Amino acid sequence: MPYQATVYRWLTQSESFRDQYARAREVQADTLADEVLDIADDATQDMQVDEQGHERVRHEAVQRSKLRVDARKWLAGQLAPKKYGDRIQQNISGAHDGPIEQKITIVDEVQVKATVAHLEENY
Description:
- InterPro entries: Sf6_terminase.
- Pfam families: Sf6_terminase.
- The chain has one domain: Homeodomain-like (Arc Repressor Mutant, subunit A, Orthogonal Bundle), CATH 1.10.10.60.
- It has helices spanning 4-13, 15-41, 59-79, 81-84, 109-122, and strands at residues 47-49, 55-57.
- Strands 1-2 form a two-stranded antiparallel ribbon.
- It has 123 residues and is mainly α.
């Protein structure tokens, strides 16, 4: 396994290595997404039978599976944000979904000084 510094040097110096690296990261994200489904579908450790023969939920195993799923979802979202990342969409519009209105007010300097003086006197 090469040192991390070596990999970074290859990334800066070789276009073909950059392309291979990018493809490998895409495959890694897809693999993580597949693992999410496998972990979520696997319920073999979720239940246990106690001494009286009653089935009980193993909350620790369920929480561990949730943690494993969440970690893989997060990492897949970091590696391939367009494919696995959270979609954040912002729409900016004016009143009643209309266009944004721009208002320009020209202020007279004398009027500003008078207003400031008035505020200072009264407060």
